[in-house]
Amino acid sequence: xxxxxxxxxxxxxxxxxxxxxxxxxxxxxxxxxxxxxxxxxxxxxxxxxxxxxxxxxxxxxxxxxxxxxxxxxxxxxxxxxxxxxxxxxxxxxxxxxx
Length: 98
Ligand code: SF4
Fold this sequence. Notes:
Elements: H1 11-15, H2 22-34, H3 42-55, H4 66-70, H5 78-96
Helix pairs in contact: 2-3, 2-5, 3-5
The structure holds iron/sulfur cluster.
Iron/sulfur cluster (SF4) binds at residues 6-12, 23-24, 27, 71-73, 75.
């Protein structure tokens, strides 16, 4: 539940040379996906949050780690790995439905 500490300040995006919002998005998705009441929307949330991030023009994460080092709430890069896992698993399930 460390991801729940994210306050949405945007410092991670400002520090990233790619202007990636993966730490913020990863924190929000990981937090909500880990809640019992968040499970019902887990797959949809994972896909739509990544789509929204891409459509807004944020860059991709290249694991530099500047975001983690400036985060005032000590959100860890682990939330990006979790976001990637949830996104790819959800996308694959969506593809296999057809
Ligand atoms: S810097 Fe940390 S607290 Fe601020 S938006 Fe990014 S992940 Fe959230």
